[in-house]
């Protein structure tokens, strides 16, 4: 001790300082490490006691940690009341008594792995399927003067667009139920459809409609849509039982034969793919399972009319779809009700405007597709596409610019399909599946954005048959800006957008004879080694007897320009 | 030596202490005037009142929001059936057009309205005290100023209540940070009642004329107050009162409809403004331009909808020269569907960007005439109502294709005809949605079909059903309270439709 005191004052001071330092250091300093306090879904649920039962469901199914990871989810969140009601329906007293697989399916049905706000809802399905695989349908309902948005028809949204760290939550008042009946079972169950059920059975279509979908595969194409008709609709057409139906339609007396008219009568009412009324309202022609036959659809105010058309100057009255009953979701498709009996119709050629970007895979990019101001380019790999194929392995790109601006914003919808290196070894022989084209003769116009260098000629094939002209992508619209439109048309060019822009050009590649009604293959083949991007806008199949210039497309947005 | 230093120090200290309590300790803003120094003379009141009008034209420096006239345009047209999205439309605008409205939508901000309301409140609260300080200010003069502040405040509350339904009603000036900002909403009918009360008071105070045309059309007069009264009475279903208010304007003999003629009529009424047809306009000038050229022509956010040409103004397919002068090349340009009313110099030529000073038309004589017709129709005086419509149609060259021959005792048809005529006469003047809503909501939403039919025409097909169902809820006809307002004012309760 004495020695310590004898130390020089400087050393003593240092010692005291060090000791002080040691004591001070023992208090832990708190550093804020997070930059954002927003809770993720599971933590959000832990904070809100009114959703404790859904949290319990997440925990039982072991999805709770997963819903707390970062991502872009949409959760349809049932309140405790809703879950209790579900338990009552299921006849059990607690969530633990529900079979685990059922619970897992239900939870998965409530989650989408894209963030979807209510502003994106339509009258039909949400573009992204639920994690379970089934699509959810949105709409609106009015009860006692109060309107609210609905999900799967039964559940009303109580609180919408609650932002959380990993997505968005919509609170709903009923648990969404997995549709566990197939179309065939759903139809059979409805006593009003007994005659239709019998027709399905005698023609063998019952089994096709009874085949469940394998949700583990993302197999949208195996969904079916049925336009059923009730006994009353049959009765109004003078058909009271299956014998009369057979007598009226079955001309080969073998309904199981696909060529038999009764078989065609049934297959004409079965449409491939999942098409809710909102989808039908925007598609001009619906493919059916009857070979080469389509149903036309038309929206008249709020009524969807099937097969209403003017034929030889005479209006043929269409058949309405009964809205209130329709949009019934089954496990393998959707069921609609036609208000009256209808028969196969002969179709006249109608124009088909095929925007190259209008691919399901691009449409599913809900935050990008046709959204003004979104990230301009999104590339998707070859393996993802269903209706587009090409040689070699470069991706293709959805390219959206501000309307009437940027590089491709002048095109229809302000977007173009971009092929970065349209050449052998990167991307060649790109083949698109067109929308349904009714059989007949068409002129095919392809529009694109022209450039001055680094691109070249492109050959066009329809169903493998080469068209008479090639596209020269070096040709800009400005080379022809002084030529009168009809003169230009006679030379095989036109200005396809309104207001027209010299940046875009449109080329008549030839006349094509479409032999069968249905979807066809359109192939583009680069003739040289392009070293710049190629941008394609629209392919127009216009019947030969139609005006080839009008209507024109709106530059930058959807729809057609008013005719001047 | 020591004493000398002490003396100097003492003198210095004394000097400092005597002079120190001066200006530099007194903090005043260098770039503005404080209240105690203002409000002393009648010129101060006039400056404050002109400031109110100025805030209607464009936002004050340092505030970067849209101008009042652009809000009035959007609140009146976005939800109507006469406009379509243009190439430069924003997501927020498109969402409102598609009835896809959320509280986070920026266009639901009402800040600009309450800013000007506060200017009005300040004049109403502080101007009366000037009477004691300035002996040259008479009570009559003071009342004139008060009438202007009261009427503008009433018009803004009227617009807010038509747009948001229930809104906070603040009738005193916000002068310090200690004021209570946590105000609950007042029901729509009470807001309307307050608006009527204010307008009645203002009417008693107001002038008939300021002695020059620009002031008569650009400042509040007895006539602009009566135009507002006629409008708000119709919203309140006080039809006789609405008729009487409109009749005061008609009987004054100061207003008339100009015989329509190519170029001259458009140039007089719209391009130049302040015509004999005009009652109250926002006075944009070449040094203080309106927003219209920018959002309608330069970067078009809105176009006339595709149906306007044929369905609203009518087309004579046999004789293209026979057209409604209020349609093509007045309200819009057929073909491109550009909205033309605010950018044209006459029917053939456009204004230049730097000259685009077209006014915003709050009330025109034709508007008041048609409001009067609406009151007459509701009073079961259909014959007189039809006479007014015919008069407007005759003066303004409506074509036979849009004429309707209807039974004068069929109230529904007369009202539909008035609505159609209003859509022609007042196209793109921020009236359409309010016209539809006012008539739809009468008698407990007896005419909801006006709104749903319009939606069926204009809604995108894949959302049509949801939009129509949503419109069946009366609460959906009003915009939500913006999220930011709910966050700052805890007393506000959101419109239940926007849960």
Automatic annotation (TrEMBL), chain A:
Superkingdom, taxonomy of origin: Bacteria
Protein name: Lipoprotein
SMART domains (UniProt xref): FAS1
Entry keyword set: Lipoprotein
Gene3D superfamilies: FAS1 domain
Keyword field contains Lipoprotein: yes
InterPro entries associated with the record: Adhesion/Biosynth-related, FAS1_dom_sf, FAS1_domain
FAS1 domain sequence ranges: 38-176, 180-342
Keyword hit for Plastid: no
UniProtKB/TrEMBL annotation, chain B:
Segments forming domain RagB/SusD: 339-498
InterPro entries associated with the record: SusD-like_N, SusD_RagB_dom, TPR-like_helical_dom_sf
Domain spans labelled SusD-like N-terminal: 93-234
Main subcellular location: membrane
Entry's localization field: Cell outer membrane
Matching CDD domains: SusD
Domain of life where this protein originates: Bacteria
Annotated keywords: Cell outer membrane, Membrane, Signal
Assigned protein family: Belongs to the SusD family.
Protein name (record): Membrane protein
Organism classification: Bacteria, Pseudomonadati, Bacteroidota, Flavobacteriia, Flavobacteriales
């Amino acid at each position: 001790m004495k020695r310590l005191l004898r130390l020089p004052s400087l050393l003593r001071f240092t010692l005291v300082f060090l000791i002080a330092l040691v004591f001070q250091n023992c208090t832990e300093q708190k550093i804020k490490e997070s930059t954002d306090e927003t809770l993720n879904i599971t933590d959000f649920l832990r904070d809100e006691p009114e959703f404790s039962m859904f949290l319990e469901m997440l925990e039982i199914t072991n999805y709770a940690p997963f819903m707390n990871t970062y991502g872009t989810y949409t959760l349809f969140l049932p309140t405790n009341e809703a879950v209790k009601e579900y338990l009552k329906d299921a006849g059990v007293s607690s969530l633990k008594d529900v079979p685990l697989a059922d619970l897992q399916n239900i939870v998965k049905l409530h989650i989408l792995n894209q963030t979807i706000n209510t502003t994106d809802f339509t009258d039909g399905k949400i573009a992204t399927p639920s994690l379970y695989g089934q699509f959810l349908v949105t709409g609106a309902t009015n009860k006692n003067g109060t309107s609210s948005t609905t999900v799967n028809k039964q559940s009303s949204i109580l609180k919408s667009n609650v932002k959380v760290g990993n997505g968005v939550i919509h609170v709903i008042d009923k648990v969404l139920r997995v549709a566990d009946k197939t179309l065939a079972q759903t139809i059979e169950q409805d006593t009003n459809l007994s005659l239709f059920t019998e027709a399905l059975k005698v023609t063998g279509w019952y089994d096709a409609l009874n085949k469940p979908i394998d949700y583990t595969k993302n197999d949208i194409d195996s969904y079916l849509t049925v336009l059923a008709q009730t006994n009353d609709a049959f009765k109004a057409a003078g058909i009271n039982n299956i014998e009369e139906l057979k007598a009226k339609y079955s001309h080969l007396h073998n309904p199981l034969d696909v060529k038999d008219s009764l078989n065609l009568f049934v297959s004409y009412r079965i449409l491939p793919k999942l098409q809710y009324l909102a989808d039908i309202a925007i598609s001009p022609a619906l493919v059916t399972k009857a070979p080469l036959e389509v149903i036309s659809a038309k929206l008249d105010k709020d009524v969807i009319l099937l097969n209403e058309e003017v034929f030889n100057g005479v209006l043929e009255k269409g058949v309405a779809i009964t809205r209130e009953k329709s949009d019934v979701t089954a496990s393998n498709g959707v069921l609609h009700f036609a208000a009256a009996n209808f028969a196969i119709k002969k179709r006249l050629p109608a124009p088909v405007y095929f925007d190259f970007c209008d691919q399901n895979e691009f449409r599913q990019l809900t935050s990008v597709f046709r959204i003004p101001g979104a990230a301009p380019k999104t590339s998707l790999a070859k393996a993802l596409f269903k209706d587009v194929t090409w040689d070699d392995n470069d991706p293709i790109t959805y390219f959206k610019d501000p309307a009437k601006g940027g590089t491709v914003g002048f095109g229809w919808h302000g977007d173009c399909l971009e092929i970065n290196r349209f050449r052998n070894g990167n991307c060649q022989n790109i083949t698109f599946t067109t929308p349904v084209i009714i059989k007949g003769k068409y002129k095919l116009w392809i529009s694109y954005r022209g450039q001055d260098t680094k691109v070249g000629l492109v050959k066009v094939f329809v169903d493998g048959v080469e068209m008479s002209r090639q596209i020269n992508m070096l040709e800009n619209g400005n080379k022809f800006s002084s030529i009168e439109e009809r003169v230009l048309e006679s030379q095989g060019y036109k200005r396809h957008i309104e207001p027209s822009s010299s940046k875009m050009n449109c080329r008549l590649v030839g006349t094509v004879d479409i032999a069968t009604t249905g979807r066809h293959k359109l192939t583009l083949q680069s003739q040289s080694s392009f070293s710049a991007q190629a941008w394609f806008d629209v392919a127009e199949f216009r019947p030969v007897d139609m005006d080839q210039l009008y209507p024109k497309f709106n530059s930058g947005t959807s729809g057609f320009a008013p005719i001047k | 030596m020591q004493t000398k230093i002490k003396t100097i120090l003492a003198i210095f200290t004394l000097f400092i202490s005597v002079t120190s309590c001066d200006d530099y300790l007194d903090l005043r803003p260098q770039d503005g005037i404080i209240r105690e120094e203002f409000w002393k003379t009648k010129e101060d009141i006039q400056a404050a009142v002109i400031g109110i009008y100025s805030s209607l034209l464009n936002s004050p420096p340092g505030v970067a929001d849209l101008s009042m006239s652009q809000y009035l345009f959007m609140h009146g047209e976005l939800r109507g059936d006469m406009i379509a999205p243009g190439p430069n439309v924003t997501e927020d605008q498109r969402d409102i057009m598609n009835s896809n409205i959320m509280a986070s939508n920026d266009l639901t901000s009402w800040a600009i309205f309450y800013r000007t309301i506060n200017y009005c409140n300040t004049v109403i609260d502080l101007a009366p005290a000037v009477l004691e300080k300035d002996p040259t200010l008479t009570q009559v003069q003071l009342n004139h100023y008060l009438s202007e502040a009261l009427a503008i405040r009433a018009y803004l509350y009227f617009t807010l209540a038509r747009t948001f339904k229930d809104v906070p009603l603040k009738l005193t000036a916000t002068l310090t940070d200690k004021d209570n900002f946590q105000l609950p909403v007042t029901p729509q009918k009470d807001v309307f009642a307050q608006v009527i009360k204010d307008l009645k008071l203002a009417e008693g105070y107001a002038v008939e004329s300021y002695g020059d045309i620009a002031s008569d059309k650009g400042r509040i007069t007895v006539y602009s107050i009566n135009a507002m009264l006629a409008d708000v009475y119709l919203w309140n279903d006080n039809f006789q009162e609405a008729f009487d208010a409109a009749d005061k304007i008609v009987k004054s003999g100061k207003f008339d409809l100009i015989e329509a003629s190519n170029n001259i009529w458009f140039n007089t009424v719209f391009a130049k403004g302040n015509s004999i047809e005009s009652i109250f306009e926002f006075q944009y000038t070449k040094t203080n331009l309106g927003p219209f050229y920018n959002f309608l022509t330069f970067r078009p956010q809105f176009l006339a909808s595709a149906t306007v040409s044929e369905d609203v103004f009518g087309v004579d397919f046999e004789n293209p020269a026979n057209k409604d002068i209020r349609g093509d090349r007045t309200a819009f340009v057929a073909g491109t569907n550009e909205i033309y009313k605010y950018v044209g110099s006459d029917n053939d030529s456009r204004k230049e960007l730097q000259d685009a000073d077209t006014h915003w038309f709050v009330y025109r004589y034709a508007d008041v005439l048609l409001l009067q017709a609406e009151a007459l129709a509701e009073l079961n005086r259909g014959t007189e109502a039809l006479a007014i419509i015919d008069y407007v149609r005759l003066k303004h060259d409506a074509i036979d294709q849009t004429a309707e021959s209807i039974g004068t005792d069929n109230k529904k048809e007369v009202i539909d005809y008035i609505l159609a005529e209003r859509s022609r006469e007042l196209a793109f003047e921020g009236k359409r949605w309010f016209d539809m809503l006012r008539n739809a909501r009468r008698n407990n939403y007896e005419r909801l079909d006006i709104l749903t039919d319009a939606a069926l025409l204009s809604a995108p097909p894949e959302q049509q059903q949801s939009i129509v169902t949503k419109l069946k809820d009366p609460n959906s006809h009003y915009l939500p309270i913006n999220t930011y307002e709910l966050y700052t004012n805890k007393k506000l309760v959101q419109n239940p439709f926007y849960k």
